[in-house]
Specification:
Blueprint lengths: L3 H20 L4 E2 L9 H12 L5 E7 L12 H15 L4 E5 L6 H16 L2 H10 L2 H15 L4 H10 L4 H8 L10 E3 L2 E3 L5 E8 L6 H18 L5 E5 L1 H35 L9 H18 L2 E2 H13 L1 H10 L11 H20 L6 H30 L10 H11 L4 H18 L4 E2 L11 H14 L5 E8 L2 H16 L17 H17 L4 H11 L8 H8 L8 H4 L4 H4 L3 E7 L7 E12 L2 H13 L3 E5 H35 L2 H24 L3 E2 L1 H26 L4 H19 L7 H29 L10
Parallel strand pairs: 1-8, 9-14
Antiparallel strand pairs: 2-6, 2-7, 3-6, 4-5, 5-6, 10-12, 10-13, 11-12
Helix pairs in contact: 1-11, 3-9, 4-8, 6-7, 6-21, 9-10, 10-12, 10-29, 11-12, 11-15, 12-15, 12-29, 13-15, 13-29, 14-15, 14-26, 14-28, 16-29, 16-30, 17-27, 17-30, 26-27, 26-28, 27-28, 27-30, 28-29, 28-30, 29-30
Length: about 800
Amino acid sequence: MISRSLIIKIVVLLVTLAGIYFSMRIELGEDALDMLPGTSLQGDFKLLQQLGMVNRIFISLELPSAPDPDPVPDSGLLASARALGEDLSLSPLFAEVFYQLPEGYQFRLAAELRQYLPVLADDGDLRRFEALMAPEVLREKLAEAFQALNSPAGLAMKRQIQGDPLGFTSVILEKLSTLRGALRLNIHDGFFISNDGRHCLIWAESAIPLTVSGNAVLVNQRLEEALARSLKERVTARIVGPLPHTLANAGTIRSDLARLLPVAIVALVTFLLLFLRDRRALLLVAIPFLAAPPAVALLAGFYGKVSAMALGFGIVLLGIGVDFAVHIYLGARGIHSTGKISGDLRGSLFMAFFTTIAVFAVLLLSSVAAHRQMALLGIIGLTWAFVLAWLLAPPLGAQSGVFTPNGPLFVKEMRLFGQGSHQRWLKLTIWLLLLAAGLSVWPSLRYNGDLRALDVPVQAVSDDERAFKGIWGGEGEQAFVVAVGREQDTVLNLNDRVYQTLARQEKSSGVQSLAVLLPGPDRQVENLARWREFQKTGLAGFERELRQAAIATGFTPAAFQPFLDWLESEPESLAPGDFLDGPLRPFIYSLFREFSEKGAIGKGESVETFLAATIVPDNPDNKAVLERLSSEIAGVTVLSNSRWRRQVEEDLKRDIVKLSTVAALLVIMICALFFRSPRPVLGVLAPVTSALAAMALFAAFTGGELNIMHALMGIMVIGLSVDYGIFMVRACLGGIDHRTLSAVSICAVSTLSGFGVLGFAEHPALHALGVTVLVGIGAAWPTALLVTPALLASSGNREEKP
């Protein structure tokens, strides 16, 4: 007959093997959306993705500096740009690559602008046209045209001069500078060249999201291959945009996990050998390993893709999952142990388990997706770790003999600190001073909503960005005012309102808008009405004056008949497609998008959505108008780093207050149900209060800022610290048991070893996670050993329970 223990081992083995099998097939993701709090910010980020801003790659080709810079670009630089652009255009990984305007773009652009000039010209433009038509200016312009026609390039300009001798299209061309925004670039042979002629700009849009590390690796590999094939001698490249940041963050997280996971294992094994002095105790380390694969597999089954940040939480499980096993193992090593879990220990274990799971469950309410994944991974992993500890730890303890703390001096000292009550009031006074200090600095703490605080600092990336801004401009931050809607006309009208509002500002330089080239339908109607009035009143007698001026400057009387025919022709309306495939596509494509989204669930039809963006410098001068745009114009969303920072700060503050409050109430309710007396509840909460106070003091002394990771760590520390208080209170109420003191110390040090290695992580988020918990648990541990017994002691010393 198969024994019960063998059946248990077989079940554990099968579950573990299944977990390993499925966890090895998970898809790992480092999507930046996982770290964004709230659905509103995620919606904003999605808009940026749809506009292509998040997937944009800027490539700045450059030549070495020269003592006498030549504004005419080097042929090798242009050849490199052409070869690189053509190479990238052939790859399916890039949706768009802009490196050169099409040949003859000047004439094609002039023809298109002339065709649609009546709907592009506003009231101020018409006044300028009337000034150009004045007799004295008219003759001056025609004389210039005659000289141009007799120059070497005159033959190519003949048709253009005949169709627009006064340069009406030039008036509109001047306004098109807003399409460049803050970029400082010149166009040479269609290439985008810097002012010093030593740099050439290429920008591309990835066909796959660059916030996902796997995609970033693929795109970067293809880009490096193209650079190796395309760059000529002395030409180098700088890459700027989200791509270098995604690669840096993903690489750093993977490097941290590969480097720190073995360190955590070695630290935990060494500690258990040193203090338990039993090789069988090393099997306790297997508890987290056995629990982690099924937990990761179930997490992947629930979410489909596991965040790398959530997977990094596996290191944390090494420090937490072993706690239950340590208590059960030491409990089974008592003098009268039968290898089974005693009633007192069983109650403590269940209480600690429920409080820990309850606190982790609170994290499921977080507005940060990565936090929710971490919480679910912790709940599943700790639940399975608890079951494994319950099944596997008692036999190990029973076979190891009676545990006596006669080993290292560290344990002896902790026993003495935990047992003594001579300094009861001194302990309580120090504890109260710690709480008072923590409360005093709490109001001064700031909520840092800048998501770049969680971005790994890489000097090479920072240097490239600084050099790029020095060459091409774009200093400072940018805000994106996005009009969204199902109707193209509605979106264009909204975009036009945005531009007109910004144009009325005293300081509106640096605005990049499509409205100058593509006014909304409502404004097109207004412009057409003014143009028709201009045709009726402004052209009276002009034909005669033009023919006379033509004769006077050397032309035939009918030389400019095409211009007159155009002035009297019926104007045409304008649509985005008229310019989107033209020479200005590189500038228009980033400001206007049309895409399809799936309709209602079960219907399957696609719904067209239109986006039009206006890019505005995100500075104090524009703060008021940006706020007004977002509040007064329905259908318009303002995307800016300053707004995101404020939003994240509000969400972060709300998260910290909400989650901490819910966690505290759950812990108090569970403790009250178990103990039904205020003093034991206070004893349980003492380590929690010390941990929170210590973390507040640490944050104040290291800059006074709280970020997204602190919200996560605060909740986790509550769950960890309360367990120490539970076991100490249960032990104190029955008389201090040296095995409880040792178990609490072992659990605390094992947790510190698991979290402690994260303090050496290079990634800011993982580093903040590790250091914060080191401080919190570092304060909760001695509080549980020293303060909790002091709070429960009525008088005299407690006798140790054998």
